[in-house]
Structures are given as structure tokens and as C-alpha cells.
Known about the structure:
Elements lengths: L1 H7 L7 H21 L3 H22 L6 H9 L7 H19 L7 H10 L17 E4 L5 E5 L7 H18 L4 H15 L6 H15 L10 H7 L1 H12 L10 H23 L4 H14 L4 E2 L1 H7 L5 H13 L3 E4 L6 E4 L12
Antiparallel strand pairs: 1-2, 3-5, 4-5
Helix pairs in contact: 1-7, 1-8, 2-12, 3-4, 3-5, 3-10, 3-13, 5-9, 7-8, 8-9, 8-12, 11-12, 13-15
Amino acid sequence: MMTLRQFAAGLKSIPVTTSWYLSSLGESRGKQELFTTQSPQILAVLKESSLIESAVSSNRIEGVEIEDERIGTVVFGTPALKDRDEESISGYRDVLKLIHEDAKTLALSEELILRFHQLCSGQIWDAGRYKEKEGDIIQKYPDGRQRVRFKTVLPSDTPPYVAELLQLWNDCIREQWIPPLIALAGFNLDFLCIHPFRDGNGRVSRLLLLLQLYQLGYEVGRYISLERVIEQNKERYYETLEQSSQGWHEGKHDAWPYINFVLFILKSAYKEFEERVGRTASPKGAKADLVTSAVKRQTGQFRIADIERACPGVGREWIRNILAEMKDGGQVSNEGRGPAARWRYLGERNNKGTAPK
């Protein structure tokens, strides 16, 4: 709540970069209704894709992964879950569905935060409970060295800090001290610095981010996975979080690097959403666009199973056909055959048939 305390004391100026993000996001929000009323079938495909990507990416950021062939079943089915990782992803899916369906009626409260944690933590002993022991953020290096990146709030101080954070958020939104998106990003930073749980803080922070965005009228997360965009920029996420947490306990920190990162993620999601809806004219085109976009997001080698995971509802043969077309166009290459084949995205081709440099 140190960031929101700073804002409560008065904001003298807003960095130029932040102002630029706010202006751009204001335009995107204004066009949001236009895009979300154009193609219901296309949006249904995007919603399904966003749900699975969000559940998988948010957990993967925290090192929680499951077998590729189990993802669709865990996210969309009602299977017998095999382990805690599957429980965590399934629970995260449940919270996402709750937010998608009831965001307008969910009051942001301590009880809701604990509920989110309980649902997305699997069957661990302290699911839905604040931490009981100190747990600093430790960075470990390959050579065995480690350092404390951030000292979190003491367990005894956690409940009052969370309570103050919630009060400051409500006051800020009601009294409009600052633009709501800045308050939202500041809330997210404060929550991560308080670090109220032994485990699962990052996942809960991303769920709260989605909920608060919906309540402010920014609904791109229904169609584009914010968690996936964060995962794609994971290094920048950790870098800006560390920058903005320095001096947090004393209220002398610089919150703007992390605030700008959150706004960058939201702007990137809106850009992708407008591009994907704007250039797609049919359900068939939606699926082709979904596959093509998933391929272009890959870094390094990938398998068809990776594209299947990113494109729920799209058959393997359809994916193979799209990859074949992209290969003919010089956009992808492959090694091997069958399920073990490894593919690589090479980039767009210009009119001369060569990849741009």
C-alpha cells in the first residue's frame, strides 16, 4: 500500500511515457465495443483460446506445468486430477470463469482475495490462508550463489497491510486522485510487495489485475490472455518489479517502471485483439488466424502439440495444413516427421521471397 499512500499524498506529475500509454488505452477502450459486437463466432474462438492460455501461462510463470496432452482435459473437462500442478491449473481456470461471468458483482475484499488463493493453490495445507513465516524473495544463480531481491512484509503485518491497501484502492477509485489505470498498476505492485501468501502470490496478483480491469471497463482479457503476454515478457516483468520495489518499505520507491510495464501489457493485448478481429472475416478464418498467430508467437523450435495447446478447438489436421502453407511461403521450416517433428518460425517474407532482415 506504499504506492497508493504516495498517490494519496498527491501526484505532482505523470511521466510522458505513462501519459502516452493512457491516451492510447483510452482510444482502445473506446473502440472495444465496436470490435466486440462484430463477429460473435470469432470472439468465441478467442475466448476459448484466452482461457486456456491464461490458466497455463500464469502457472508456468511460477514453474507449474503439466503434460501437453493433459492441458485441454484439465482446463475444459472434469477429470480426475493427477497432482498438485493439475489442481492449480484447474483451480485457476475456475477463478477465471468466475471473473469472466461475475466481475461486475464481485466486491474486491479480503475474503475474495483469500478465496482466489484457495481456488488456485491446489490441495496445499495453507490454501486460502496468509503466510505464517517470513519468506523473502530470493534469487538463485547457476553457480549456487543467491541474494535477497526483496524483503517481504512480516506475517504479523500482512492482514493490516492488505486491509489498508483495499481501503486506499476504494478511496482512490471513489475520489479519483489519479487515473484509475495508474491506481490499478500501483495496487498490483503493492500486493506483490506485501506478498501475503507463502506461495501463489503472482497468480493471485494476475487474477486481481484481470478483475479490476473488468470493473474499470477494460475487457480485452476476455479475448487475449494477459497472462500469456506477461509470460512472453517475463524478464521485463521481473526487472521492473525489482526496480519499483527498491525502497518500498520506506515509501521512497519509484513505482513508474512497474506501472508502465502493466500499461504496456494492456496496450499489447489490445493491439493483438484489434489485429486479430480486424483481419478475420469468418469462423474458418478465425481458426486460420488463431493458428498463424500462435506460430508467430513461438520462439525457437516448437511442436504441433505446442500449437494445439495454444489453439483449443482447432484440429491437428487443420494445424498441419496451415503449417504446410506457411512452409510453402517460406515462413516456417521443419526437421523430422510425425509427432516428433520440430518446427521453427522464420518470419514474414517480402515480395521477393526472402525474409526481412
